[in-house]
Design goal:
By secondary structure, this protein is an alpha+beta fold. It has four helices and eight strands, in the order βαβββαβββααβ. The chain has one domain (2-156): 7,8-Dihydro-6-hydroxymethylpterin-pyrophosphokinase HPPK (Alpha-Beta Plaits, 2-Layer Sandwich), CATH 3.30.70.
């Protein structure tokens, strides 16, 4: 199954956190493509460091709820602890979408319910999966064009 994952970090050495997360993800599937790193402003609680965000395409035999469990385990191993919503975090890994049916439960929503509002997701997604179309058939460029223009997103090399 093909999954689109978003990764972000704004505590500690952000680049190292993301690189370690990618190494961990290789244990649950094969990463076929990934974006560069993007510096983005926080959403929700603004009084915190900027995030470093990236997106990857992961191919895994795991079903969505099993993958979610593995992602939570990776986050925990990397030092993420429960905190206030939108607070600073060492690592955050979200399932954006996958090649199967839509899922909406209390613990998992695929596609991610707010991905179309977030430049820090869509811009790296365009780099990692330029042919991506959402469930309504809109291509990634259309989704980016519909973003609010006040989102600061800067690619970091």
């Amino acid at each position: 199954m093909k999954y689109y994952l978003s990764l972000g970090s704004n505590k500690g050495n952000k680049r190292d956190n993301l690189n370690t997360a990618f190494m961990e993800l290789e244990q649950v599937g094969e990463i076929s493509n990934r974006s560069g790193y993007y510096e983005t402003e926080p959403v929700g609680l603004k009084e915190q460091d900027d995030f470093l965000n990236t997106v990857c395409v992961l191919h895994s035999n795991l079903r969505p709820f099993r993958l979610l469990l593995k992602l939570k385990q990776i986050e925990s191993r990397l030092g993420r602890t429960p905190a206030v919503r939108w607070d600073a975090r060492i690592i955050d890994i979200d399932i954006l979408d996958w090649s199967g049916e839509a899922i909406v439960t209390d613990t998992l929503s695929i596609p991610h319910s707010r991905m179309n509002e977030r430049g820090f997701v869509l811009v790296p997604l365009q780099e990692a999966a330029p042919d991506y179309k959402n469930r309504q058939g809109h291509n990634i460029q259309t989704l980016i064009n519909n973003l609010e223009s006040n989102q600061r997103i800067k690619r970091i090399d």
